[in-house]
Amino acid sequence: MTVYETAGPDASGQYLIGYPTPGVPHVFTAAGAAPSHRLATEECARLNELQVVDRRTAIVRKANMIVLDRER
Question: Which letter does DSSP use for residue 36 in this model?
Fold first, then answer.
């Protein structure tokens, strides 16, 4: 799972939203920016939670398919 985190502020005062690059964790991949640390942190939390929700949905979908296959 990708874990989003904040970095910054940069030279223009923006806080970056991103994640450590898989395979090279010392390299930060920026996925967006926000004008304040609070907004950047909130967006990271939203993106991280969205991944959890998507994963749970995939697990439920897979379980439902297994049940449907067994009923045939």
Answer: S
